[in-house]
Write a structure and sequence with these properties.
The protein is α/β, with parallel strands linked by helices. It has a single domain (9-158), classed as P-loop containing nucleotide triphosphate hydrolases (Rossmann fold, 3-Layer(aba) Sandwich), CATH 3.40.50.300. Helices cover 45% and strands 20% of the residues. It contains seven helices and nine strands; from the N terminus they run ββαβαββαββαααβαβ. The strands form three sheets. It has a five-stranded parallel beta sheet, sandwiched between helices. A two-stranded antiparallel sheet has the order 1-9. Strands 4-5 form a two-stranded antiparallel sheet. α1 (22-32) packs across α7. The structure holds adenosine-5'-triphosphate (ATP). Its EC number is 2.7.4.3.
Length: 187
């Protein structure tokens, strides 16, 4: 674990059930706030050899979380990351300033996942996960609930509005922290 550091930009997690629109939001946000860096965590893990196996039941890769966090840490210390991953609870609290949990109507989500060619059991598992608000509960348990916001992501209008809202939040953060923010101690 590194010593304390000052970051001049916030780190933001964009979480949500697969298909909710994390990457769509993160890409648009990075376009509108070019000082932030979008990390698609699944792709980052694959590119940086952080995959330790395959979960055949869930039809997905198993990520070596320790290795992933070690690689991300220097970037997180500097700040300005948009962390785009379905799972948000692995990132240390001291890194994170805002957690956006995207939510999606079940039928819309079902259609999106089906279009991707996911097998029926994987579509069902993800839609159930959305119905049970699993990601939202994880986020609220893992971080101060005051930094967790829930945003709907059913259509392009909500996507634009959400990104605008996050950009406004970033401007406020910069205004409130003109000298940056030092690492919060682990709690
Ligand atoms: N708010 C939205 N309005 C319209 N289409 C959307 C919206 N959000 C996502 N989509 C569409 O849904 C599909 C899935 O979106 P996206 O890849 O951004 O989701 P994701 O949460 O990043 O998924 P994964 O976790 O599997 O990477 C894409 O085809 C995208 O265009």
């Amino acid at each position: 674990m590194s010593g304390s550091s000052i970051r001049e930009l916030p780190n933001i997690i964009i979480a949500g059930t697969p298909g909710c629109g994390k990457t769509s939001h993160a890409e648009l946000l990075a376009q509108q706030c070019p000082e932030l860096k979008h990390i698609n965590v699944s792709e980052f893990a694959k590119k940086n050899d952080c995959i330790e196996g395959w979960d055949s039941e869930r039809d997905t890769s198993i990520v070596d979380e320790d290795k992933l966090l070690d690689l991300l840490e220097p970037m997180a210390d500097k700040g300005g990351l948009i962390l785009d991953w379905h799972c948000c609870d692995i990132f240390p609290e001291r890194w994170i300033d805002l957690v956006v949990v995207l939510r999606c109507d079940n039928t819309v989500l079902y259609d999106r996942l089906e279009k991707r060619g996911y097998k029926e059991s994987k579509v069902r598992e993800n839609v159930e996960c959305e119905i049970m608000e699993v990601l939202l509960s994880d986020a609220r348990e893992s971080y101060d609930p005051q930094i967790v916001i829930e945003l709907r992501s059913e259509n392009v209008d909500t996507l634009d509005q959400n990104v605008e809202r996050i950009c406004q939040w970033i401007d406020m953060w910069k205004h409130d922290h003109p000298d940056g923010i030092s690492d919060r101690l682990p709690q």
